[in-house]
Amino acid sequence: MTIELLKLAGSVIAILFLAWLARHWQLGGDVRIGNEEQARAIADEIICGFDPVDIAIDKAGIGALMRDASGRHLLVRRHGAMWAGRLLDNHSETRLDQNFLTVGTGEKTFGAITLNLGERAQIWAAGLRHLRV
Amino acid sequence: MPELFSPIDYAIPAFVILVILEMIWARRKAPEKYEPRDTLTSLALGTGSTVAGALTGALVFSLAMWLYQHRLFDIGWAWWAFILCFIADDFAYYWAHRAGHRVRWFWASHVNHHSSQHYNLSTALRQSWTGFFALGFIFRIPLALIGFHPGMLLFVGAINLIYQFWIHTEAIGKLPRWFEYVMNTPSHHRVHHATNPRYLDMNYAGTFIIWDRMFGTFTEEVEGEKIRYGIVKQLGTFNLLWSVFHEWVGIVRDIWSAPWRHKFSYLWRPPGWSHDGSRDTSDTIRTRWLERQQQPAE
Fold it and tell me: Are residues A3 and A66 in the same domain?
């Protein structure tokens, strides 16, 4: 039993060391959405076949909102060094503060994200408030 | 029964050293291949899995011993029995793994291994906490009834697990053709972890890729196509407990809200299945993708 506990303690120390090492070496990087082409590629990765007709990228590139021809709205946000997204529905939380639009998915673990969309924030806020599904 | 050492105990220091070596490679070539929080989640899942295994392993071993007492053949401990046992166990692993992707009940446990959006050696250690609860052992335990001693099954199972560690990397390209034909390799297993529609639910092998070739689930890695890792609906969080239990929670929610005649389907049908067709399974995603490929470019 003592040996098993020592092994467990050793494992915990090892994983903390490896996580620290990954952080110390700055692995992961700082991913940003630089342009619409990249946003389209990310959208297709998240929802296979999602073809946006309108795209709003956060000024800092940390997330984006996209709408396809059928009116589906996709929220994309940074997740570590990768991207994650959710289709939004009429239960999604939306808060507008001048150029900043905060969008929540209703999923506690996914969280909400505040996007700086400039003047277009109001247009997107209105679009999200009128989602039918 | 001969005294067998625990291969995992000897392998763990090597695992740690190899993860460090791969991090050095990532630091030089592609820092985005690792993410500190993702690595921490993966390794915590691995440690938790070891604890869960220690708590439930004795029960599974006892059940295997009971089956062994009613064995059909006296296979014994000859050297060739180990080889035979390894091959038979790998065959059973293939089917356990295939069920782990095609039946939501088993997927709820196995999804833990796939929920990282990264593919590196730390992902190999990202293992389930709920394997015992999901009853995944039912695929491999019948080997005891055939006549392989549970101690031998434990030993070859550990060797199989160790083999599967080194294939979780993007640092190794394709290997010699003969090796790629017979063995599971980093290339084949990258396909398995991919969410690209062409790769979904393919390459279930543990050690020998021949099972996939035999049973129609083999797909070759396509040169030049970027692989996206993880699950169809990415978690979007590094929360450890949510990573462990999210699919179980999803099953409970779906069963709760589904009409009575559909409730049971949420346990045994493929992940992503829904009674109203509002969600996607890997089959529907692949079908839609194939349709798009066949459409003429505008």
Answer: no
Listed residue (A81, A73, A66, A68) closest to A105, CA to CA: A73
Q: Say if residue A40 is in the same domain as residue A26.
A: no
User: Would you call A77 and B117 a contact, using CB atoms and an 8 Å cutoff?
Assistant: no
Q: Which domain holds residue A61?
A: 36-129
Rounded average pLDDT over B208-212: 98
Residue at token pair 């055939």: B146
- Give yes or no: residues A54 and A117 share one domain: yes
Nearest to A90 by CA among A111, A68, A105: A105
Stretch among A93-97, B78-82, B91-95 having the lowest mean pLDDT: A93-97
Confirm whether pTM is higher than 0.90. yes
Interface A-B: count of C-beta contacts within 8 A: 111
Number of domains in chain A: 2
| d(CA B33, nearest CA chain A) in Å | 7
- Whether B85 and B73 have beta carbons less than 8 Å apart is answered as no
Chain B residues 197-226 with a CB less than 8 Å from chain A? 197
Choose, out of A32, A46, A48, the residue to mutate when testing the contact with B (most B CBs < 10 Å).
Answer: A48
